[in-house]
Design goal:
homodimer, 480 residues, alpha+beta, BirA Bifunctional Protein, domain 2, Rossmann fold, Translation Initiation Factor IF3, 11-stranded mixed β-sheet, 14 helices, globular
């Protein structure tokens, strides 16, 4: 049963998304700052969980954090030709300080390859300084035309890794390490979002990159969302910024660089992959609160005995389960159930006077709303039960999302099938078309090549457009 | 013995500071971005430690994090009159996007009272919405005239808390809670920096505040550094931004707000309180690395046996001591000792073939350079020994800093004594002067009232300037 305030997905998916953002209290429109949002506490807590899981993996793979300036001299942005072309239309310029014109304007970083490249050129002298493996958590500003909370906002938060290597092979290994061990592992195991990993086409790659790898996820309307990218920048930025080093033979070499990032749009992905018509659904591993306890009582005597049971039961949870006891006196249990369902807390535990007497509790899992997900559990062994249930919910959400993606992925052998596929989900097909062909498909079907996936077929087949025999398969989809 | 690359403190304190920043590899000048720095990995790791310790305390006292826009419509900044006056000279303005003029310029936040006030006015309806307790970790930009790494930079990183309360008493309680339980506790117990807590004078308070409380620390040149501030904003911002609520009688009331912040200048304080002519000195609780192990060997056989001992000893440390094993083969032990001294690692453990044979290790504490701080310790019980030693170093650094402050604080009964005092440290004195008198002292002696400390005398005395009887004592000092 859909909730008041939430448009059902089937009726209007875009509106459903905006309703979830509002009703779960994740963000507010900053209408006075074009295309920006306020990350409200509930939404920001999800970002903190994402940061913490990613930061752990970024450091475990040998990277350290640093922080580079927000403002980039405009002339610096212009140094790498393709990069300029990609970002110039979107940059905000600082031209005055307290009314006085600056001699040279600054741009607010839309990404930091240029300013970081400038410093790397200063810092790197010898092969002993390599690899240089730095990550930055930062805000960036891009003046996008159409914005939507979390998915595309003028200002957003992200991490951007920038690394320098002595050889092309090292840079390529780094690019793939991030894709698999940092992003892929985090997205699938913590966020329960199945991803397709692959290479971007020349048309879709990052402005200035040699190769861009990406992780693509399917939303519940069948569209793709690019969840993260990892770029092998080759020597493009190293040449533009003069990042060189003397090798073991004392010869000056041009370095190889990479960059990679994920952003607060991951919050949008999280919402769109798991949530339902009742509100937000959060995977337990990423949920800031995993279990909410709602005590139920009608008078002071009942309150005392219920709260004593709550205190006894939750005493064991500290450090094992992230939980909250909703002890607000002025609100009914029904109001509270509704609120925590909207906010996506994975498990609700209800404890009333009957539960105290029978030494049970009611446990409701958010991923199965209504009677189906509710059960009565003995108080003895409750902690272990909840921990197992959290793991089960995590696994279920991943499995459900994977099944959805598989059911909405179609193999297309001609353009009609391609069109039908991208109206419902992902189209997988053989592809030997040109950049112009790719553009034509985009114009005609509003779909782009999301990835040349790593899992390629053993045998060739005819290109969906040209019929030409090829061994390359791609994924077409409409995208966020 | 001072180190190569570091000017002794006694010779040139300012240069000593800059030398430490450079030699400990904490920051780089971003000369192409006016007054900005790059927080290099070693420096940024200290900020991460500060963030983590503060964030814990901010949350433990009931606050949640959120994130508000970087860009503030210029008109919004102009809404609170005193605030404008305080910040207008320093703001960077975004006037163009990709060459096209904006209808209304934005400023980059110099602080966020105005933009947050705008949203709070939207969000708060009833007394049930109060208190609203939000903190933000963010970057801010202030076009300061004279900049110095960490201490004053065009862009800096900070946290800014912004809270709303139903009554003046609640706002005052919040302001003091932050001062004592968040900032005071963190600075003294984690950073080993003794602080004087007190009220700012009208002249020195935050632009737009009713009252500003601050924590002031003494640097090794006797100057004061304001380590954190907590502002009771009264109803000034609430009136300017229309932050009102309906109370329990359904009457509309104007709310009371607070704001409070500490920034990356704490890294500057940390350097200037504890470091010496050998380099950086880090208190163990804040040190990203607490113990560095330097294995010593001359050949492969020695290396094998030394590294096996290192592996065995450090296996116990995981989760208890933050440590690093410096296994770099191309560098001599002496080079490594020097590097880790410069970088302020609290304890160095040396293990060579003789130590393996004798089942000992050499332990050197950074806070007592040279022979005095070095001892030979049995391998049995080493972990416990190191943990105790870390606690002892932490305590010693605090005690030493407190002793220094006490030795450099003088009671002044006349202007000559006041002047002599501020040339060496803090001047404590009775004060009944006006704002103009305060300004005159600043002009004549380059000293300002840092705080009206909480510990006030039981008996009155004559004002250092006017001779008028007063019960109020203040601290004058030259400040960073």
């Amino acid at each position: 049963m859909p909730k008041a305030g939430i448009t059902p997905r089937a009726q209007d998916y875009s509106q459903w998304y905006l309703d979830i953002v509002r009703e779960a209290d994740l963000a507010d429109y900053a209408e006075i700052v074009r295309g920006s949002i306020v990350f409200k506490p509930t939404g920001y807590a999800i970002w903190e969980a994402i940061q913490s899981g990613l930061d752990l993996r970024i450091k475990a793979t040998g990277h350290v954090n640093a922080y580079f300036p927000l403002l980039i001299p405009k002339s610096l942005l212009l140094k790498e030709a393709e990069h300029v072309e990609g970002f110039a239309p979107e940059v905000a310029e600082v031209t005055r300080v307290s009314g006085v014109e600056l001699a040279e304007p600054y741009v607010i970083r839309p990404t930091s390859e240029t300013i970081i490249g400038y410093f790397y050129a200063k810092w790197i002298r010898s092969w002993r300084d390599l690899p240089l493996l730095i990550n930055q958590w930062a805000n960036v500003v891009r003046w996008e035309m159409r914005t939507r909370p979390f998915l595309r906002t003028t200002e957003f938060l992200w991490q951007e890794g920038h690394t320098v290597h002595a050889t092309e092979e090292d840079a390529e290994r780094e690019t793939l390490l991030i894709l698999h061990d940092v992003y892929g592992d985090f997205l699938e195991n913590e966020m329960a979002i199945p991803v397709i990993k692959g290479l971007k086409t020349e048309k879709e790659k990052f402005a200035g990159a040699l190769r861009t790898y990406a992780l693509e996820a399917m939303m519940q309307d069948g569209r793709a969302l690019q969840a993260g990218t990892s770029h092998n920048l080759g020597q493009n930025f190293a040449k533009a910024f003069d990042i060189t080093f003397s090798d073991q033979n004392n010869t000056i070499q041009v370095a190889w660089t990479t960059s990679w990032g994920v952003s607060t749009r991951l919050i949008g992905a999280l919402i769109m992959v798991h949530s339902d018509d009742e509100g937000l659904v959060l995977p337990p591993r990423i949920a800031p609160t995993q279990v909410v306890v709602v005590p139920i009582y009608k008078n002071e005597a009942e309150k005392v005995s219920v709260m004593a049971t709550v205190a006894r039961l939750t005493a064991e949870w500290k450090g094992r389960i992230r939980f909250k006891v909703d002890g607000r006196d002025n609100l009914s249990p029904g109001f509270k159930f509704n609120e925590w369902e909207l906010k996506g807390i994975p498990i609700r535990v209800e404890i009333g006077p009957k539960d105290v007497a029978k030494e049970t509790v009611a446990v409701a899992r958010r991923d199965r709303p209504g009677r189906e997900g509710k059960s009565f559990i003995p108080q003895a062994g409750l902690t272990e039960h909840l921990i197992e249930l959290l793991a089960d919910i995590q696994q279920s959400l991943f499995t459900k999302a994977l099944k959805f993606r598989e059911e909405h992925t179609f193999f297309a052998t001609n353009l009609a099938e391609l069109q039908a596929a991208v109206e419902q989900g992902f189209a997988r097909c053989y592809w030997a078309g040109s950049k112009e062909d790719e553009q034509r498909i985009q114009t005609d079907f509003k779909a782009t090549i999301r990835a040349i996936p790593f899992d390629q077929p053993p045998t060739p087949g005819p290109c969906v457009l040209t019929g030409q025999e090829t061994t390359q398969q791609v994924i077409f989809a409409r995208a966020y």
